[in-house]
Amino acid sequence: MSNSYDEAFERSINNPNGFWGEVAENCHWYKKWDKVLDDTNKPFYRWFVGGELNSCYNALDVHIENGRGDQDALIYDSPVTDTIKKFTYSELRDSVATFAGVLAAQGVEKGDRIIIYMPMVPEAVIAMLACARIGAVHSVVFGGFAANELALRINDAKPKIVVSASCGIEVAKVVSYKPLLDRAIEIAESKPERCIILQRSAETATLIKGRDLDWNDVMKDAEPHDCVPVGAADPLYILYTSGTTGLPKGVVRDNGGHLVALKWSMKAIYNVDAGDVYWAASDIGWVVGHSYIVYGPLFMGCTSILFEGKPVGTPDAGAFWRVISDHKVKCLFTAPTAFRAIKREDPNAELMKNYDLSNFKSLFLAGERLDPDTLKWAENSLGIPVIDHWWQTETGWAICANCLGLHPFPVKEGSPTKSAPGYKLKVVDDNNNPVKAGEIGALVVELPLPPGTLPTLWNNDEGFVESYLEEFPGNYKTADAGFIDEDGYAYVMSRTDDIINVAGHRLSTGAMEEVLADHPDVAECAVLGVEDKLKGHVPIGFLVLNAGVQRDLNDIIQETVRMVRERIGPVASFKTAMVVKRLPKTRSGKILRGTIQKIADNKEWTMPATIDDPIVLDEIKEVLQSIGYALG
Ligand code: COA
Ligand code: AMP
Question: Ligand 1 within 6 A of 168 CB?
């Protein structure tokens, strides 16, 4: 018998115009679309072309007009500064309109880019929505990236203005942001005209005269700005994500499809309604933060939580339960690593007992594979549905999920359940032929992708086609491998490229290799992700030194660790490197990363038939054992 999920899924695939057109009626449009799906320029698809809207209007103003002005829109909960600050929809709209006025007064116009490099403070959300209000394109850069990464993004996005803060607070450590910003601008070729800096009480940044402005000063004199209608296919934001090289990919998000898909997902996937409290414990620098701290919950008229803290250490492993209880959170979304951190410190979930969690109805996890131990621990200690769902920066919302608001399915361990409506997920072999149920292959989505997913890469249509559409013609390549079982449940096993997930953060080992290769004593190197109990994976580096290098090996290792921290950022968690004589390779010269990884993780492995010299693997194993890996 069919259910609401089956019906929605079937219609979304067989009649996308009818399905999404109907969903879009629930949003505010200044001008209705001419066409729901424009497929006249394949493989570039556009949603709701001809439509005009404003994402900020749909996030804030519309709710005030519908009587939600006094409801909390955003609750800033910051244990690291001992602050809780609530913004009603009216208050948030006023601050956003004022900052939109600041940007407009600085000459920012529709289509101009603004980079936001900020910690988890309300001003970051205000800046994002202010850009949306005037049709400017924001690009938020995660605070854990170093100056060099910020510079790469400045060069690509060419922002008119950078909005930043004096510092972030990582548990008890104050992390200065401003020197990183100054350094990034110094090394970037493209120079922003202005920087607007939020001075936080933990640290006052030095402002550069003629370039930098103080957030509080500019807000004092600004005139509020109204919403500017933009085209449905106009970009709302660019979010850079790791690719296979050191150059990040600028994922573009449009305004129309994004609004329609995210608003719909709040009920269909997360089963929350207007007025409910929703919390995505992530960072605004990641896609989860964009979609489910800022836009999704606000489009829906929910109260969203902005949490500046960690699952442990702020002050203890009960922090999540405290927030859920204090603010009556109905649905929490975070990464499995956060739960592994809590479980490690409070294995019997004793701290949970101190809080009233009666409003808490569902936990959603994503960002990395959900290991069965963490799933069971969360299910047993919380007694509510624990939902694994799978998605990517590129898609902006879940490819696979157990859609609680449509029809909940029984949970199968290791599976993010079935394709969400809109995604025709398939598993194919190297020749793009579908494989049988249960067989592993490349996970691909048949085109067109649903609304809200990336229409292209910033200024790089060619790169978009090359990265995602070329290898499996007619399909979008997720770059994840896995299988779909007889019941239609998907299983996501591993990436097919060099991306690793470290504490739910997506990182490129290729980018780290580029940094290591720059060390003057390094002739060759390889970085790969090995299993880690807390972070899922962590990167480790293998260094082959130039002939004749006589220096202390530890010094060289420490220098490489420092280089990755300085060039990519602390978020890379690159702490381990080792010097080896040679790297195991195939006869054609390809480094056998997969085999090294299996050895490090104590997984079964077979000697590759194409290996150049099998002895090299023994040497690698010995080195790994000397630092605590490959001991099984
Ligand atoms: N600004 C500056 N530095 C940052 C930062 C930020 N926004 N975020 C992280 N860092 C730094 C950390 O301080 C740490 O630095 P260190 O090497 O000096 O200790 C480093 O980057 C690594 O951070 P992280 O990977 O977060 O590790 P952690 O040990 O600090 O915390 C967890 C581990 C599991 C508690 C943490 O990763 C977490 O809460 N994860 C939740 C999941 C999540 O947010 N996922 C995002 C996608 S949903
Ligand atoms: P990001 O773009 O940072 O969201 O990372 C996307 C990648 O994270 C995906 O391509 C997967 O490799 C991984 N990922 C995200 N969610 C899941 C999940 N639920 N299960 C397994 N892997 C996941």
Answer: yes
